[in-house]
Amino acid sequence: MEKETIVISLGGSLIVPDNVDVSFLKDFKDLILLNIKKGKRFIIITGGGKVCRRYQEAFKEISESSDNNLDWLGIYSTRFNAEFLRLNFEDFASSEIITDPTLPVNFNKPIIIGGGWKPGCSTDFDAILLAKNVGAKKVVNISNIDYVYDSDPKVNPNAKKIEEISWADYRKIIPKEWNPGLNSPFDPIASKMAEEDGIEVIIMNGKPIDNLAKCLNGEKFLGTIIS
Prior knowledge:
This protein is α/β, with parallel strands linked by helices. It has a 7-stranded mixed sheet, with helices on both faces. It has 8 helices and 9 strands. It has a single domain (5-226), classed as Carbamate kinase. The two termini are 27 Å apart. The radius of gyration is 17 Å and the shape is globular.
């Protein structure tokens, strides 16, 4: 019987919220390895986190920035995080990270880890491409937000959490365009592709780790389901 393949988009805000979050990464590693013992396999795409934004902000102060240059800074920060994660999974992970989500995926190990691809594409987009590539119909997007809200809760204290929403309705409440450093639960281009291909995306907080464990076990969890 073919193993269940789970695509996880691991937000950089969980890997490097300010400094590297060792406690979270230990818990995340233990949870993934536990699920591998249950017969699952994983594709994990890493974001850039604070490191990415700090380099992008510094670049803007030093040089004339272009979206292309800012994108490349972001891409290499995600790839560094991907290599860091891959090394921590040791022999359970493939020997190289994925940098092109359109190429054939070889599951010679139960964990495949990837980073950013090319300018104009976020890691959300990469995760959807990889889900399409391996025939997965679900992407679990974990970051430091609990839910999708109907407006920005940092600006509007009365923002309402959303537990389930259609892609059409979700796309009405996010920006129409993607740009480097965009802060959105799931990026507009990736959202359009997910809607077209019938891929469900779960937006949830990676902490506490028990919440992710419930999601992976098919139990009731806290977060937003977009489908």
